[in-house]
Amino acid sequence: MWRHKDMVAQSASIGATQLDRYFARDIFPNFPFRNRHWLAVAFDRQAFPSRMPRWFFDLLVQTYTPTRAPISIYARNPDGTEPAWWRHDVPLEWSAYESVVTGENSTAEFRMLDPLGRWACWSTNEVTVWGGEAEDMMIIYERMGGRDRVRQSMFNSLHAYAAHLPSLAKYVRGLVDAAGRE
Question: How far apart are CA 43 and CA 148, in angstroms?
Fold first, then answer.
């Protein structure tokens, strides 16, 4: 089992290099990932101390067979000074993930990357969005009860943000259906 003391945070001046390859400029109102063929699922970040439910993380581990290479979690430097991000390389395990995104290690924003480029995750104060290759995400949707159920669940979960995101239904539709995006 992974332990917090195994984690080594590294200063990362990565700006336009690593993160910009995966992430769009904003998490909403448009699709938050550069790869327009990806699909995604979103959670109300405030609903879970670890920013996403454990059952979902376990589902991800089942779908994305972990590689020996660690995943990278980039945590925004909370004081706004350089470096802008701190990188934590950890295994794709709940205890490792949770130790970076909760407690004293927690920051308002983090981004997480698969070493093989199959998925990415972006979490802010309001929402956590997990995106990945369409084929893998369709497997995840089916395990969650189907695409329509996932879309309705996301809409219900994120409804509190409708004032900030007037086109919430359109945003959610765009997460689960690439054809639903502009």
Answer: 16
The Cα-based distances of 140 to 13, 40, 71, 81 in angstroms read 33, 10, 19, 38
pLDDT at 66: 62
Query: Which run of H or of E encompasses 34?
Result: none
* Rounded-to-10 torsion of CA 143, 148, 152, 153: 0
Joined tokens for residue 50: 């670890």
Would you kindly state where each structural domain of the chain is located, as residue ranges?
7-180
How distant is the alpha carbon of residue 103 from its chain centre? 18
- Give me the residues of the chain with pLDDT under 50, please: 1-9, 11-16
Is the separation of the CB atoms in 44 and 158 below 8 Å?
Answer: yes
Q: How far apart are CA 176 and CA 155, in angstroms?
A: 11
pTM metric for this prediction: 0.84
The SS3 of residue 113 is strand
Compute the distance between CA of residue 61 and CA of residue 94 in angstroms, rounded to an integer: 9
